[in-house]
Known about the structure:
With 552 residues, this protein is α/β, with parallel strands linked by helices. The chain contains 17 helices and 15 strands.
Amino acid sequence: MLTSIHIKDFAIIDQLDLDLKSGMTVITGETGAGKSIMVDALSYALGERADSGVVRNGAKRAEISAYFDIKQLPHVKDWLEEQMLDDDDHCILRRVINHDGRSKAFVNGQPVNLAQVSELGDFLVDIHGQHEHQSLFKPQVHLQLLDRYAGLTEQSAELAKVANKISSISGKLKAFQTALKDKNDRKDLISFQLQELEQAPIDKAADIELEHKRAANASRLLEKGQQSLAALSEDDENISSNLGRIVHQISDMLAVDEGLKNTHDLLQSALVEIDEASHELRDYLEGLDIDPQAYHELDQQISALHDLARKHQVSMEELPQTLQALQQELEDLEGDEQTFDDLEKELNKLEKHYQELAKNLSSKRQTAARKLNQEVVKLMQQLGLGNGVFEVAFNQQDAVSFKSTGFETAEFMVSTNPGQKPMPLRKVASGGELSRISLALQVINAQTTQLPTLIFDEVDVGIGGGTAEIVGTLLAELGKKAQILCVTHQAQVAAQGHHHLQVSKSQDKKATQTQLLEITETQRIEEIARMIGGIEITDTIRQHAKELLKTA
C-alpha cells in the first residue's frame, strides 16, 4: 500500500509530506483548493509523461516521491528483483521534473525509464478519474473493461501479442512471395552463368593466354631462336668458339702473371654459361611445335575466356573470384527459400496457437459477461436506476482474420426505462445516467482487482443524497480489502471515510499555496457541515453532519 508521499514545488504545492493509512481515506476541500493535486502528482510518480507546466512558478524543478509497503506483494518483489531494483519490503518511486519539461525517474534510488515506472505502477495503484465515464462512449474500451473484470487482461494481451506476430510474419511472407519471383529469375540466370564459368578453364586462363601467345608467334620464335643458336655455337665465328680461344690465350698469360687469375675465371665461367644456354636454346627450338590445329583450339579457348570476362565486366584473372561470388549469391538465394519455408511453418504454428487462445478467451468472456450483467444491474438499482437493464453484446469477427481482440468485440447495451429495448450505451444514456453506470463498473472492477491501492478522483460527480451515501458505503466496503483514496465533494461519501484529509489554499501577494492535512473529529464535523450547507453553517447543519458520521 501507499504509506507516504512527498511533494515539492509541484503546481501550487510548496512542500507536502503526507503519511497515509489503510482503509478508506477521503480528501475534501473548497472548490478550487486543489483536491486532485495529490492525485495528479502521484500519477507523475507512476510514470505519466512530464509537463513543464506542473513545476511551481519560480521553482527550478518539481519532485514527487511515493513510498510503498510491499510486504504482502510477492509479485512486486519478484518484478523488482528481476529488474535488479529490489530493496527489502520497500519500494520508493521518485520523479523529478525540470522547468524545461525534461524529467528523471528513480525506483529505490536507481534511475529507470518511464516504461519501467509505468509497468511497476500498474502493480501498485489504480486511478479512477472523474471523467472516466467519457471513455464509455468508445466501444473499443468495453472489451478491455470486460477482460479486466474477468481477470483476462494477461490472456488478452497474450492473444494480441500472437496476433501481432501473425500480422508481422504474414507481411514478411507476402514480401517474400513478391520478391521470390524476381529471385527465381535471378537464380536461373546465375545457374546459367555458373554453368558457363564451371565449363570454362578459368583457373588456367594465364597458362592458356601464354600458350596462345607462344603459338601465335611460333614462326618468329623459331627464326630468331635459330639465328641466336647459330651465333652462339654453330656459325664459323660463333661466340662459344671465339670465347674458347680467348680463354686459352689468357691461360697462357696466366702462367706468366697470376694477376690475370680473376679475369681468367670470369671468362671461363662465361664460356660454361654460354654452352649451357646454347643447349637450352637448342632443346627449346626442338620442342617448338607449329601445329595449326592446336593454335586454333587455343584461339577458341582464349576467345571464350575474353567473352566471359567482358560479360561479367572483369579481367580474365578475376573470373575465379566472379565464380565464387556467384556461388555465394546462389547459396543466399536458396537460403531465402529456406527462410520462407521456416516462416510458413512458424505462421501455421502461431495460427493454431491463436485459435486455441481465442477460443478459450471467448468462452471465459461469455461467462464473465453474464455475471457482469447481473452485478451492474444490481448496482444501477442501488444508484437510483431501478429500472435499468445492462447487457454486454458481442459482435463476432471472422475467426481467420486473427484480430488482436480475438473472435469478438463487445459493446455495452443499456435501457433505463421500462419496456425500452437495450441500445448502445453511447446512444441512450444521459450524462447523469452515464456517470452512474461508469461508477458501477468502476466499483465492480475494483472489487475484483488485486491492486493494493485504489484512487477515486471525484467519481461521484452528478449524484447526491441517498445515492451518494450508497457510493460512500460501497467505497468503504472496498476499503476493507484495499487502500482507498477518494477525492470527493459529497458529504455523504466523505462521512464514510475511515480517515479524512482536508485541502486548504492560502494566498499572499507573492504566491498561492495548497496544504493537505488530516483533520480531527471536531474539524471533520465542521468540514462535512460545510459540504452540506455551504457558506453559512448552522447548528442544524452541524447536527446533520454528526448524524452522517454516526450513521457511517
